[in-house]
Design brief:
- Residues 436-538 form the RecJ OB domain.
- It comes from Massilimicrobiota timonensis.
- GO terms for molecular function: exonuclease activity.
- Residues 332-423 form the DHHA1 domain.
- There is one protein chain.
- The N and C termini lie close together (10 Å).
- The relative contact order is 0.09.
- The chain has helices at residues 11-18, 22-31, 35-42, 57-69, 82-97, 118-126, 142-150, 189-201, 206-218, 225-241, 244-250, 258-274, 282-288, 294-324, 343-354, 382-388, 412-424, 444-449, 506-509, and strands spanning 4-6, 73-77, 103-105, 129-135, 154-158, 172-174, 331-335, 358-364, 369-375, 395-398, 402-408, 433-436, 465-471, 474-478, 483-489, 494-499, 514-526, 529-539.
- Helices cover 41% and strands 20% of the residues.
- The chain is α/β, with parallel strands linked by helices.
- The strands form 3 sheets. An 8-stranded mixed β-sheet has the order 1-12-13-17-18-16-15-14. A 5-stranded parallel β-sheet has the order 3-2-4-5-6, with helices on both faces. Strands 7-8-9-11-10 form a 5-stranded mixed β-sheet, with helices on both faces.
Length: 540
């Protein structure tokens, strides 16, 4: 992997101006924060933008209150990923607390596809629903909204996805990008739903606030502004309240963090949407409601663990198949054996490993279609590519770094050629930024000060450091040879350097006296004693 190494030049000015240590000053310099953002980090305050700032907030609340007063049937229509499932739960729970039972539907990835569709609108109208509220979808549901209007059903769209110039003829919209007065545009579908829920309830709710925080991490929203406040505060609530629905998914060996949400909790939720043939994602809405029976929750959480393990195994197996088809400077692979619900994970795995764009498709021989998912890196925008080559696709959507698409048999080869041509003259630069620090920057107090910048996540990534020519005093294998642990004495601290999953390098490294490493810094606490770990990501 190639890295973009940052050599701090002006960190001493930051040290003097903001009275921070050299390590924190170097990280701040590397982030190039403007003054307001930096003040928010160093002097944290809770940021929360009120629901009233949405352009059609009043109209939306009026229509919902009218529906409640007239005892109309209301249905919440969600999406099959973590954001959509929890956004649905947030609104269903809010209505329950208002004494209103509402219907809800999480679409099946394969039967329904993404977003509100005509067939489901007709079914809801038949069942007597007169108001549909979408969460985490809707801005592109033109036909479905048109059909709803014909049937006398109002649709309130709450969404956060990109839209083109036209919008469906919905009753009202709750969307940051349609609201000039809403100051921060990049919030999740779940956080949008939470804003509506808290406006309906006339108060904040700790548990629903935590669910919104999970959607913010799972949907990789930038952890800045109110998103950062949301996740930071919610992590405290989760640790204090120990909500059963979250505890069962977290497991005993974990603590609440952006990492455990992103890599432990969210994947278990997402596995239902990816493998709906084993269990409908609709059961998760009932699971996350406050009055869910304990035995039901235990059963669903066990299913979540089982499904996620199955998903991991299938993804790894199919990724190995995909790698056999690697060539050129990108992955373009299809198979009738690949699971359609996993194509995005396989493409993402490739893109992370090789820092190149990945296009992975499930081939449906009966329909003659390739349904795919793509992942990219900075420098090659998928959205721009799709827009410039619309003639190649039956359907497409997404943003610059991730998207979905469908190609027919007639355009399969020409689509490959278009990608090849588009990448031919592009010089894609490494996306991994590394900060070069010195051994005098490292001590427990300095590393602890980095908590000011937490929680880490999208657009506020955990800093990755380079240490050059570190002296190695001892090296050993851990966990029956699975991992490596090296000891080093720096200028001000003793540090354990851990290299997970690389125990096989012991023979090559056992006599090494110095090494240059890239990784992250971590405080280890054992029996009230603190020590420093450097988690190695790469040896360079």
């Amino acid at each position: 992997m190639k890295y973009k190494i940052i050599e701090p030049q002006h960190y001493q000015q930051i040290q003097n101006q903001y009275h921070v240590n050299s390590l924190l000053a170097k990280v701040i310099e590397s982030r190039q924060y403007d003054e307001n953002t930096l003040k928010d980090f160093i002097n944290p305050r809770l940021i929360y933008h009120d629901f009233s700032l949405f352009e059609e907030a009043d109209m939306t609340l009026e229509r919902i209150h009218e529906a409640i007063e007239n005892h109309e049937k209301i249905c919440i229509y969600g999406d099959y990923d973590c954001d959509g499932i929890l956004a649905t739960t947030i609104l269903v729970q809010a209505f329950l607390e208002l004494g209103v039972e509402v219907g809800y539907h999480i679409p099946n990835r394969f039967d329904d596809g993404y977003g509100l569709n005509v067939k489901r609108v007709e079914q809801m109208a038949q069942k007597g629903y007169s108001l549909i509220i979408t969460v985490d979808n809707g801005v592109k549901a033109f036909e479905a909204v048109e059909r709803a209007n014909e049937l006398g059903v109002d649709v309130i769209i709450t969404d956060h996805h990109q839209f083109d110039n036209d919008l469906p003829d919905a009753c009202t919209f709750i969307h940051t990008k349609l609201s000039p007065d809403y100051p921060f545009k990049e919030i999740s579908g779940g956080f949008v739903a939470y804003k509506l829920a808290s406006a309906l309830l006339g108060r904040q709710d700790k548990y629903l606030y935590c669910l919104a925080a999970i959607t913010t991490v799972s949907d990789m929203m930038p952890l800045l502004d109110e998103n950062r406040s949301l996740v930071k505060k919610a992590l405290i609530f989760m640790k204090e309240e120990k909500y059963p629905s979250l505890e069962l998914l977290l497991g005993n060996q974990q603590t609440y963090s952006t990492t455990s949400i992103g890599f432990v909790i969210a994947p278990k939720i997402n596995s239902f949407g990816r493998l709906p043939e084993f269990c409908s994602p609709n059961v998760l809405v009932k699971y996350f409601l406050k009055n869910a029976p304990r035995d039901f929750m235990v059963k669903v959480s066990q299913m979540a663990i089982s499904l996620n393990t199955k998903r991991q195994t299938m993804t790894n197996q199919q990724y190995e198949m995909a790698k056999e088809g690697m060539g050129d400077d990108f992955l373009y692979w299809s198979s009738d054996q690949v699971h359609e619900g996993l194509v995005g994970l396989i493409a993402g795995k490739y893109t992370r490993e090789y820092e190149r764009p990945g296009f992975v498709m499930a081939y449906d021989e009966k329909k003659g279609l390739y349904k795919g998912s793509a992942r990219s890196i900075e420098g090659f925008s998928l959205h721009q590519f799709f827009m410039e080559h619309q003639d190649q696709f039956v359907a497409f959507g997404g943003h610059s770094l991730a998207g979905g698409f469908t190609v027919d048999e007639a355009h399969y080869d020409s689509c490959y050629q278009c990608i090849k041509d588009a990448l031919k003259d592009l010089h894609l630069h490494p996306t991994t930024t590394v900060l070069h620090i010195d051994e005098q920057d490292i001590d427990i107090k300095n590393v602890e000060s980095l908590s000011l910048l937490e929680p880490f996540g999208m657009s506020n990534e955990e800093p990755l450091y380079m240490l050059k020519d570190v002296p190695v005093s001892q090296i050993q294998q851990l966990s029956q040879g699975k991992h490596l642990k090296m000891q080093t004495d720096l200028n001000r601290s003793h540090v354990s350097m851990l290299y997970f999953q690389h125990g096989d390098l012991y023979g090559k490294l056992k006599n090494i006296k110095k090494m240059s490493v890239i990784g992250t810094l971590q405080i280890n606490e054992y029996r009230n004693q603190k020590s420093l770990n450097f988690i190695i990501k790469d040896i360079v």
